[in-house]
């Protein structure tokens, strides 16, 4: 029998969540299995690939390493919470326009990580983007489209501002 005596209370994508789970259950499993938020991908399950990246109080974290009790009282944002309804976040739009995705498996984690970078610094340098993405692995794109997307977002902000 699974111990579900722990009740996780947090905010996910701006909505209050209260769900009974084992305290040691990983957030990636809670998101995907219990809450049916399958945008967060699971791959390595040891925090090396970044496919499961979410924002925890605005900071990117690997949800495969985050236990339920660690998320208690926190604000979590998944890929499902990045866009504003049907309107894509500027990072998502730029990734589409610049070919920053291919198979799509790593895309959610990349977008989540880049969103945190972009929110902190709307015009990051390539070196800053490389540093931010050091925990995200893509096996398909070669990263150039991803870096063009980061640059495009920064340029569009400079033009608008």
Give the tags.
161 residues; alpha+beta; Ubiquitin-like (UB roll); DNA polymerase, domain 1; 2 domains; 5-stranded mixed sheet; elongated; 2Fe-2S_ferredoxin-type
Q: Please, could you describe this protein's structure?
A:
The protein has 161 residues and is an alpha+beta fold. It folds into two domains: 7-81, Roll (Ubiquitin-like (UB roll)), CATH 3.10.20; 90-158, DNA polymerase, domain 1. Helices cover 36% and strands 16% of the residues. The chain is built from six helices and five strands; from the N terminus they run ββαββαβαααα. It has a five-stranded mixed sheet with strand order 2-1-5-3-4. α3 crosses α6. The longest helix has 17 residues, at 144-160. The termini are far apart.
